[in-house]
Request: fold
Amino acid sequence: MKRTEIVAALQSEKTGQDILVKGWVKAFRSNRFIQLSDGSTIHTIQAVVDFEKFDEALLKRVTTGAALAITGKLVESQGAGQKVEIAVEKLEILGDADPEEVSKTVMQPKKHSLEFLREQAHLRFRTNLFGAVFRIRHAVAYAIHKYFNDRGYYYIHTPIITGSDAEGAGEMFRVSVLDPKNPPLTEEGKINYAEDFFGKETNLTVSGQLEAELAALALSKVYTFGPTFRAENSNTARHLAEFWMIEPEVAFNDIYDNMDLAEDFLRYICKYVLEHNADDLKFLNDREVQEDQTKPQAERNEMSLIDRLNFVISNDFQRLTYTEAIEVLKNSTPYKKKKFKYPVEWGTDLQSEHERYLVEKEFKKPVIITGYPASFKAFYMRQNDDGKTVAAMDILFPGIGEIIGGSQREERYDILLEKCKAFHIPESEIWWYLETRKFGTVPHAGFGLGFERMVMFVTGMTNIRDVIPFPRTPKKAEF
Ligand code: ATP
Ligand code: MN
Reply:
């Protein structure tokens, strides 16, 4: 007999027929009711055994975590909570799970801390929580590809190993095959990378943008979706050393088109998840409500997870310039009461306390800030006519902070060349990027969405380590 997935079995109208299901035991109550899960849905199917008909030794092996194949009749359920259940006819143990060992793991059916779950990242997939998170993570990835594909964008695979250190988005991880104990040296006594694998210094990429721009200046609408790496020692709940980024890049778009695209794109993802992951979302929503009840009023979410997603779908983002944001902050209560740790001064970067204030207190909705001072933004951002600011945009989300960073790109060769000099980027490193500005250069714009930050928003998880299967953070690369 062919295996039926539990998601299909639960929706099946074919009561009275025999089916075969396979999965892992979530619970076995009263020597009679098996709850079986196969990951196809958050729900388990109930399989009812008549214990008099089965060998006692066999039933003893039906323990939490064990893998089973169950054949039996699909019947209407007598109990509350499920429409159908299986009257077990044949029960086969595919893999045992020693209860003694299971009791030391996150499979033990009780509440575990997220920290403990992280220590067992190899087993946390088995929990309802991480089942829900990773089914949604998949849906978000699929929705992203669908969004761009349906709109005529091309998926470009930009390199993971890069020889350019001009990306400028942070510290990089070196890629080298040289013997660290005995590296070849130059005459000046420095490590001689000419003898390394690629004949030069190479690193893991921090962004695929520069290469995506090259493609956009021919294919018009492109996007990347790949892993990026940052060796920065940011041990926060929003930073990973290895994370995934989506970077659309569009020829002929200006900064306003860029904002419109980003808003539409983020809304689409929220809508997709609401429409396709209702069961998992409801689970996460209810979990958050329960968690909130254990917290003081001030720390509780003002809106439920599902309400937050609907809110993003149905409300325009707040758009303002950096200069306006500084004004708002200077007029704010925390500023006047000296509650901000970092200064609020035109020309200094906004810190996360400032961003949080704008999003969570002042506007209470996603915020797009544009027109940042050129001094703390990347060299490729288009200079505005005021000569001081650039056509940058950061999108800030409640509870997350920056979710998107983007800009209109500098398409004017002379200005870009000047910028490279000012940023100490040698022409010999970036000649290929500059060259696109010589041959039919056009305005273009794009942005980078942090995939995990998006998954945090749609799942309500508050630590980025809990939305990627195997997080890489400073001092942690287990599994
Ligand atoms: P932040 O200020 O939060 O460190 P950033 O300015 O370094 O972000 P960008 O270089 O603009 O970020 O990268 C684009 C997007 O990638 C960000 O908006 C964010 O969503 C995501 N991102 C950046 N760094 C990380 C990281 N270390 N871990 C996970 N996501 C990240
Ligand atoms: Mn950063």
